[in-house]
Amino acid sequence: MKIVVIGGSGLIGSKIVKKLRDHGHEAVPASPDSGVNTLTGEGLAEALEEASVVVDVSNSPSFEDAAVLTFFQTSTGNLLNAEAAAGVGHHVALSVVGTERLLESGYFRAKISQEKLIEGSSIPYSIVRATQFFEFVNRLADFATDGNTVRLAPALIQPMAADDVATAVGRVCVGSPVNGIVEVAGPQKFRLDELIRLDLRERHDPREVITDPRARYSGAELNERTLVPGDDASLAETRFENWLSRSTAQQQSTPSGKEPRLSGLARKSFGG
Ligand SMILES: NC(=O)c1ccc[n+]([C@@H]2O[C@H](COP(=O)([O-])OP(=O)(O)OC[C@H]3O[C@@H](n4cnc5c(N)ncnc54)[C@H](OP(=O)(O)O)[C@@H]3O)[C@@H](O)[C@H]2O)c1
Fold first, then answer.
1. Are 152 and 215 in contact, with CB atoms under 8 Å apart?
2. Among residues of the chain, what percentage have pLDDT more than 90?
3. Does the pLDDT value for residue 267 go beyond 70?
4. Minimum mean pLDDT among 42-51, 98-107, 250-259: which range?
5. Which of 127, 265, 268, 269 should be mutated for ligand 1, with most atoms under 8 A from CB?
6. 107 CA distance to ligand 1 centroid (A)?
């Protein structure tokens, strides 16, 4: 079965390509890197020839409100039109748990418009909403940092490993379309401020976390349950503390002390 992975060079996309190939599928990564641009339509028709499934794990290069909205609206529209022309039978997209509760944020307004376009199209679909990746946790601290302090709300958060996200999305790709939303999350709930304290302590990072119920997340105010999934979510296995000790050991063994590949979301500014 040919499965085209839009954003196949990214953090999640590259893991999905590998996992699908390991299971004997023809997984084709597609992104500007390989001459396929969903924003302009370049290379799309050729990439989708004979494809049964398209999975979209792309992300906008800019998180500025108008740019991110244009990215998800235009690229999703182009992709769905090309899929209809190519006779693709299943569109899978990765979104974020709590998207509909975070609409004060330009990023999440863009993600909800992506979801609405998919729901309104003629292509059978599955939307996988995942919680925050473990790989993104340290960057959440950076976005909330002012001087030596990090101000965060004590909202619940249930993060998961990028590897587990890719496994979950890969499984959906080889299954039947659900024509709805499925949620995936990590096995543990934390308070956001506590999670960042754990992360910073393990990394010997001296920044002080200040608990502030009014502190914003990507420009949006959080309540206790904004970021956590419903009761039907599938829970992944990797525990944060195990991932964190592996990740810090790996960081110490790389010459620059940096992680080898950061999520695009992690590399960009995340708004207020
Ligand atoms: N971070 C989190 O905690 C989190 C949680 C839940 C869901 N998500 C969702 O997960 C998804 C993937 O995130 P990620 O961190 O894996 O992304 P990433 O590492 O930033 O990768 C982004 C990918 O998008 C591709 N791309 C950019 N512009 C494109 C274009 N015009 N046409 C086609 N492809 C394009 C990039 O290709 P090039 O390399 O060629 O530029 C790259 O392969 C996002 O949609 C995000 O909303 C994130």
1. yes
2. 92
3. no
4. 250-259
5. 265
6. 13
**Half-sphere exposure for 110 (CA within 13 Å, toward CB):** 23
Assess whether the C-beta atom of 55 lies below 6 angstroms from ligand 1: no
- Which positions ≥6 away from 145 have C-beta within 8 Å? 207
Cα(59) to centroid(ligand 1), Å: 3
Which domains occur in the chain, in start order?
2-268 (3.40.50.720)
| 260 pLDDT tier (thresholds 50, 70, 90) | very low
CA distances (Å), origin 224, targets 9, 97, 159, 260: 35, 14, 15, 33
Which residue lies with its CA nearest to atom 47 of ligand 1? 95
Q: State residue 159's pLDDT score.
A: 98
Atom of ligand 1 nearest to the CA of 267: 20
Q: What is the pLDDT of residue 264?
A: 47
Q: How far is the CA of 75 from the centre of ligand 1 (A)?
A: 12
